[in-house]
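Hi there. Long-time user, first ticket. I'm pasting a complex I've been working with (about 167 residues overall). I'd like to know whether the download I got is complete or cut off, because the file seemed smaller than I expected. Thanks.
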Amino acid sequence: MLKLTYSDYKSLRAHGEETYPHECCGVLLGNSAPDGNRVRQIVRAGNTRTDSAHNRYNIAPEELIRIQRQARGLGLDIVGFYHSHPDCPAQWSQTDFNEAHWVGCSYIITRVDQGKAAVTNSFRLTGTNEEDKQFIDEPVEIAVDGVGTIGPEESSIEFKQQEREPA
Ligand SMILES: [Zn+2]
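Hi, the file is complete. Here it is re-exported in full:
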């Protein structure tokens, strides 16, 4: 299960419309929980692939490190990634699978048809290493902002304060 707010859901889909006919990509920041990853914030990333940006995506390692550092400062982790498939199904490709290395993370793919976001799917990378990793279909739960599963008492600010308390 992947949980994200409606505004983040809308934003990552809009990103794919903006970059059409090229792929967009970004990072999902949040917290891992036994019942699934919870997205608290999404970060748009630049697509560094210039050779074939319509069907390949890549986030520069330096950019990923910077995003991870910022996330830690907010008490968040990288819980997934998203990208778009211009005029292609919202299913992972062999290349997506080969380039997925973050076990436990959610990989969101949005199909964008003629510049309009269509289906959005999520796949969780499971396994323990490169040899036995696999993608499994992951249900997505969209929460209305500020209501439902993501309440104000669970904001990143609260997490930060908890971390600072002496053990
Ligand atoms: Zn892809």
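A couple of notes from our side: The chain has one domain: 2-150. Residues 2-150 form a domain with the Cytidine Deaminase; domain 2 fold (CATH 3.40.140.10).
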